[in-house]
Inverse folding.
């Protein structure tokens, strides 16, 4: 009888192992032995997966009868940069503390939860007491959290594009820097952006017959923002953009050698980073800062709260640390605010939404932004006497995923392939030129049924990738994206129409009319940019809505990134760079100009601050 029970147990266990894992425990005998001796776990290696941001995250957990021996991430397609911290930290913490009571990493919550869920399901199979692991009470004395006080030449608030560019250039000039970042990961909106960068570049433009110059770029940027921006600042942006590109290349960022016209860029001068989304920029900055040793420190989970003002000059920052401790940072030279805009702060965007361009921007309106982009730096600077400018200038973008608002889950052509896509509404009809201004496209989109459109693309053009090799901008495999409803794919337009719920004949006619417009070089919407006809399947439809994307207003600065007060006087010790500033992009920021802003003004702020 005893033998029979053992066999039965072995069979049951084998079956349950197979359900969870590809890699069965080393031997069933060990497993049975553990079971009989009241062990905490059934010794073995277990694998399981859980859904992350871009697909499944597969983990392997090894346990012996008393403890969790190791946690390994076997496979994932999560976005590099954003997912690095949870992938490293969470397995380490689980093993070190023998617990499932592990905090998610702020800014990488979905990946964190996927790792924890997959580990939990392995441990269920290993017979662990999951409740005990999740509620593990630390019997040790609570760690006393001491307040922190530090000094550096330059203190930077915000580790997004502008803050990190400033840190690189300030340290290049010999200054020591401390960067504080309120999330658990660096990158802000920059890392989830399309990574596109505008600048005149004769070597790439001339062979394509494109005439350009910094003057023309500045004129288009200023006029594209309805001449609301400060032309002096626009000139700083546009005349230094090419040097900025060279600087980025010098620190290791790689760009495509194909020039394109990014979404809302209005001209063919857009460069695309070869890395996923904006990850290439952030990785290059972080690598560069890591090479600077103790000259550069980044403090994560540290939120800037206010500026220390002494005799009218800004001399430091008060922040709150990861465990609630007070962090006081003294700046020998300058403080740089680089906290981004306020698109993720519903209260602020409602307060300042007075331009008349948009309806209510309440909580039901999506944003493309990461959760940390809440206007903190604007408030901190304003409290210290800085003037604000163009606060009512808010940009909506038509590239938001209808489920999440994020713009990351798009095929590469949605952002930099403006010449090879069309937009159709839920009836399968075009309604706007696709190469126009962002505000015009969004204004028209908001009038369509459900405020919803589909970006339609085909496999035409010499840059068309094989469907199986295609990933979305953030690294999601296209098949995964299709399974999640982030894109729809069909061999024919008729089939595609069925999937997106419009009349097949209508969609076919729409595409035929567009293909005639490609021959004619014009259409009734005023589109100017044409390259390929949409002929070759499979066809892809990407659903998109308008979402709050960029806030053009912010801290008033001069040409050296110094913050100005209400009388136009420089506030000593205070600089600002990136989306947190106002006065550059006017009423409508051109696509591909945001990263230029973070690079040109971020780098400049670092240089000025290090003086
Ligand atoms: P930009 O494009 O101007 O560089 P980003 O959005 O890329 O702006 O980056 C801004 C960064 O600032 C984000 O990483 C965000 O989490 C961080 N941040 C915002 N508010 C604070 C704050 N109060 N303290 C520290 N970091 C902050």
């Amino acid at each position: 009888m005893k033998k029979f029970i053992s066999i039965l147990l072995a069979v049951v266990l084998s079956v349950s192992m197979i359900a969870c894992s590809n890699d069965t425990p080393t031997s069933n005998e060990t497993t049975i032995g553990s079971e009989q001796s009241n062990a905490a776990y059934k010794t073995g290696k277990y694998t399981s997966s859980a859904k992350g941001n871009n697909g499944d995250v597969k983990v392997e957990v090894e346990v012996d009868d008393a403890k969790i021996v190791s946690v390994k991430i076997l496979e994932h397609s999560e976005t590099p940069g954003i997912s690095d911290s949870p992938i490293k930290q969470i397995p380490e913490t689980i093993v070190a503390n023998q617990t499932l009571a592990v905090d998610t990493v702020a800014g990488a919550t979905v990946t964190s939860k996927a790792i924890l869920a997959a580990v939990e399901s392995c441990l269920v199979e290993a017979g662990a007491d999951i409740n005990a692991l999740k509620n593990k009470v630390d019997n040790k004395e609570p760690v006393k959290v001491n307040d922190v006080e530090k000094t550096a030449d330059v203190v930077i608030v915000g580790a997004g594009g502008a803050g990190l560019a400033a840190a690189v250039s300030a340290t290049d000039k010999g200054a020591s820097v401390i960067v504080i970042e309120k999330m658990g990961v660096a990158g802000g909106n920059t890392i989830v952006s399309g990574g596109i960068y505008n600048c005149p570049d004769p070597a790439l433009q001339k062979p394509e017959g494109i005439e350009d110059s910094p003057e023309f770029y500045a004129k288009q940027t200023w006029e594209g923002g309805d001449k609301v921006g400060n032309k002096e600042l626009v000139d700083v942006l546009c005349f230094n953009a090419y040097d900025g590109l060279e600087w980025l290349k010098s620190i290791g960022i790689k760009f495509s050698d194909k020039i394109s016209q990014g979404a809302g860029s209005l001209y063919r001068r857009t460069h695309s980073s070869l890395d996923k989304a904006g990850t290439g920029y952030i990785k290059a900055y972080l690598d560069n800062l890591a090479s600077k040793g103790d000259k550069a420190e980044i403090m994560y989970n540290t939120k800037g709260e206010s500026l220390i003002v002494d005799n009218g000059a800004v001399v430091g920052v008060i922040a709150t640390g990861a465990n609630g401790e007070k962090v006081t940072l003294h700046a020998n030279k300058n403080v740089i605010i680089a906290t981004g805009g306020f698109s993720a702060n519903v209260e602020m965007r409602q307060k300042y939404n007075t331009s008349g361009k948009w309806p209510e921007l309440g909580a039901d309106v999506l944003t493309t932004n990461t959760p940390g982009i809440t206007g903190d730096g604007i408030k901190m600077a304003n409290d210290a006497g800085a003037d604000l400018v163009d606060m009512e200038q808010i940009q909506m973008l038509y590239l938001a995923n209808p489920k999440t608002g994020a713009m990351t889950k798009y095929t590469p052509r949605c952002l930099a392939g403006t010449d090879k896509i069309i937009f159709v509404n839920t009836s399968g009809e075009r309604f706007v030129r696709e190469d126009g201004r962002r505000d015009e496209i969004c204004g028209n989109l908001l009038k369509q049924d459900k405020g919803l459109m589909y970006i339609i693309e085909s496999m035409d053009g010499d840059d068309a990738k094989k469907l199986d090799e295609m990933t979305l901008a953030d690294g999601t495999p296209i098949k995964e994206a299709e399974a999640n409803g982030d894109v729809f794919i069909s061999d024919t337009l008729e089939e595609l129409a069925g999937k997106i719920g419009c009349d097949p004949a209508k969609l076919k006619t729409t595409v035929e009319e567009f293909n005639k417009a490609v021959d004619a070089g014009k259409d009734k919407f005023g589109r100017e940019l044409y390259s390929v006809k949409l002929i070759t399947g499979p066809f892809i439809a990407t659903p998109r809505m308008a979402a709050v994307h960029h806030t053009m207003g912010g801290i008033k600065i001069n040409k050296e990134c110094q913050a100005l007060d209400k009388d136009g006087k420089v506030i000593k010790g205070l600089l600002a760079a990136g989306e947190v500033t106002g006065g550059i992009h006017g009423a409508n920021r051109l696509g591909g100009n945001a990263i230029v802003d973070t690079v040109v003004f971020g780098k400049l702020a670092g240089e000025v601050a290090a003086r």
Q: What stands out?
A: The pocket of adenosine-5'-diphosphate is lined by residues 157-163, 180-183, 188-190, 303-304, 338-340, 372-373, 376-377, 578-580, 598 (CB under 6 Å). The first strand starts at residue 44 and ends at 51. The mean pLDDT is 92. The chain has 20 helices and 20 strands.
